[in-house]
Design a protein that fits this description.
A hairpin with a 3-residue loop joins β8 and β9. The protein is 34% helix and 19% strand. It is α+β, with helices and mostly antiparallel strands and 209 residues long. The protein has one domain: endopeptidase fold (from Nostoc punctiforme), CATH 3.90.1720.
Length: 209
């Protein structure tokens, strides 16, 4: 009986010790949910840093007159305008060129960040109000298009913060050129084929009208 009693006690202790393990295992739930790749790219949320781009691969500052370009600047940039081009858009962007970069600002000639400039230009030229944040601008105001379908006035988006969040936006012109607010050079014109922009390019998009 003594031996049987000890055996029963050992068994009871073993059962009691095993209960928490079984219980934790049975109530644990798997909260992982697979997300499509285009959603996982933005898993960090939207970025509020529309801080433009700083890189040693950028071009030198463009000669300026006041806060705009010298009169032949479009020609120096190999942008030849024709009758089909929106002269009003080019004229407005020319006013912005040379405007210094100022985070969270959106005043031509005084200071702007990338989304601030895009917001003001779109309101004036197209009478369209777009979001103040570049990531939300893409999500809520645009539809993604093929890179080959880009035309003047479309938007180009970049991930410039070292992660996969959209954090920069520019206005496409033609011949691979686009206008944007660089944190080091202010509002300027660059080429999508430059290595830095090609590497950090996220999407081409057209604003819903």
């Amino acid at each position: 009986m003594h031996r049987n009693g000890k055996t029963i006690l050992y068994l009871a202790a073993a059962i009691l010790l095993s209960l928490p393990v079984v219980s934790c295992h049975s109530t644990k739930s798997n909260t992982h949910t697979y997300r499509p790749y285009h959603e996982r790219r933005n898993r960090g949320g939207v970025s509020n840093d529309d801080g433009g781009i700083t890189t040693t691969e950028q071009k030198k500052p463009i000669p300026q007159s006041g806060h705009g370009l010298v009169t032949d600047e479009w020609a120096r940039l190999d942008i030849k305008l024709d009758k089909k081009d929106n002269k009003k858009l080019y004229k407005e962007l020319k006013r912005w060129l040379g405007t210094p970069y100022v985070y969270a600002a959106h005043t031509c000639g005084e200071g702007t960040d990338c989304s601030g400039m895009v917001m003001e230009v779109y309101l004036k030229i197209y009478d369209i109000k777009v979001h103040r944040n570049s990531a939300k601008m893409l999500e809520e105001n645009c539809r993604i298009i093929d890179l080959d379908d880009l035309r003047e006035g479309d938007l180009v988006f970049f991930c410039t913060n070292g992660d996969s969040r959209v954090s920069h936006v520019g206005i496409y012109l033609k011949d691979n050129k686009f206008v944007h607010a660089s944190s080091s050079r202010g509002v300027t014109v660059d080429d999508l084929r430059q290595n830095y922009y090609a590497t950090h390019f996220y999407a081409a998009a057209r604003v819903n009208k």
